[in-house]
Amino acid sequence: MALPSLVLRRCVSSSAPANVIKHVTVVGGGLMGSGIAQVAAQNGQDVTLVDVNDAVLSKSRGIIETSLKRVVKKMFKDNPADGEKLVQETLEKIKTLTDVNEAVKETDLVVEAIIENIDLKQKLFSSIDEIAPDHTIFASNTSSLSIGEIASVTKRKDRFGGLHFFNPVPVMKLLEVIRTEDTSDDTYQKMMAWGQAVGKTCITCKDTPGFVVNRLLVPYMSEAVRMLERGDATARDIDTAMKLGAGLPMGPLELSDYTGLDTGLYISEGWHKKFPDEPLFKPSKLMKKLVSEGKLGRKSGEGFYKY
Ligand code: CAA
Ligand code: NAD
Q1: Domain range enclosing 264
Q2: Could you say which residues of the chain have pLDDT below 50?
Q3: How far is CA 2 from CA 66, 72, 150, 179, 223, in A?
């Protein structure tokens, strides 16, 4: 049962099929995985969140709790005790584990949100493919990798797709649902119904680099970094320009810091390797330098800006 007061922006159309997914395992409890676990639990799903150790999972739980408090603060202005109760009830729906094989023994959906590295993602899916029940759907939240390539190491290519969320997950309304040539109609329908059940507006895209949003957003963000490298304008002025001149909530460099410079660099390096003649995909020297210095953006305390 969904927690009624916490159901945000649910947008189930009358023709939408009923959601049959009741338990989701989210692998990776970083920026994205913690948000995905949160919106699933907020909307009544039982969730298991997996990461490499308890210290990371405890941090994920802290991020989820802080975010839930922001959500309920607005809803329960006059009754903070009820808000706190709902935060606790939602947190109780999220179990944490470090053993992914244990986590997937009984689950309807696995959403992978580990780092943007195809070898690691394939290793993970190949291992859990042996253990998860037959009916379990596998999905990756990858920003830029091919879903088909990730799925190729499993024996369930028909039950594999992409579920691409946006950062911050509790706030951003979109979910890109990606079907490969092998994703079955049944799997696709179940992913769409689940996306709607966790409160997102779903769009569909083929398994193409960056799907819709990142195919447009990543070259734009990279060009902003090149602009900074060339000395055309300062970081602050580039960001101010795009906020005030194009009406965006964040400028491109602020957004790079927000999404993580390491993630941005993984994306452009991967695309550059695959499409070396495409100038839009060329990684910038400045991004490489910042990442090598551990300046990953907000999550590390410094990127283009200091936090
Ligand atoms: N959890 C819960 N609520 C949150 C939140 C979180 N993590 N972050 C922000 N909020 C809420 C705030 O409580 C606030 O709510 P109210 O307006 O109802 O009070 C609202 O969101 C706005 O937050 P703030 O006032 O703190 O700040 P803001 O107005 O600057 O908004 C933002 C913050 C929503 C992040 C906004 O700046 C924004 O939309 N930025 C662009 C984000 C974006 O483009 N994301 C996509 C990146 S690309 C991607 O994700 C794909 C990929 O593969 C890399
Ligand atoms: P992150 O670095 O914040 O989190 C990744 C987490 O995965 C870490 O906590 C790490 O410990 C964990 N992890 C790594 N290997 C693991 C394994 N084998 N098993 C379990 N946990 C493991 O990264 P993120 O920003 O949350 O990105 C995660 C995925 O989501 C990436 O594929 C990224 O491209 C994609 N994505 C990111 C954004 C964004 O804005 N950052 C947006 C949409 C999609």
Answers
A1: 218-297
A2: 1-14
A3: 20, 15, 32, 27, 42
